[in-house]
Amino acid sequence: MAMIKQIGVMVISAALMTPVLAQAEGAYIGFNAGRANQKVNVSGDDGDGSVKDNATGYKLYGGYEFNQYFGVQGGYIDLGKGKIAYADSDVQGNFSSKVRSLYIAATATLPINEQFALFAKLGVSRNRVKIVDVYTDAGVAGYISESETRTTPLIGIGAAYNFSKKLAAVLEYENFGKVAKDDGVNLKANLFSVGLRYKF
């Protein structure tokens, strides 16, 4: 519910800010979609292991360039739903995780020429993770549903190709670190995406 309220505030804020951004040279908005990866690392008395899954993820974002080299960016990211089936002796089950994030980051851009540029960003991400575990243990059914909110560092790199002064294609990789951590179980997430960016 808290994440839904945050998204609502963000959408309303974006709607109110759009007329202002339209008048601000250096401001932009964008949309990306691509492959979101989730990896679960487990450590315990029975040994260590890891499993991973991927889903379709997307992001909505906006930002402002102070000059051609430095700026700031913020947005909302949906990393989809990861699903993992597991089996160990008498225990079998299905583990799923949904990850939603709000982030803000400083950006640095390296123009190669008028059409092509490389960029990187460093910031923080506020991640909301919902975990559901449906299992059977020695023939007894069980169900666990938990939610966790965790702040992690955000690192991103990418490239942009300018079709014009206003419209660009963007290719990007973002790493959100450990979005969930509890009792020897760590959930890591990243997003590889492509999209379009529009400058006002």
UniProtKB/TrEMBL annotation:
Domain Outer membrane protein OmpA-like transmembrane: 23-200
Pfam family, one: OmpA_membrane
Keywords for the protein's UniProt record, in alphabetical order: Signal
Keyword ATP-binding: no
Annotated localization: Cell outer membrane
First-listed, main subcellular location of the protein, grouped into a coarse class: membrane
Signal peptide boundaries: 1-24
UniProt feature coiled coil, ranges: none
The protein's name: Outer membrane beta-barrel protein
Organism: Herminiimonas glaciei
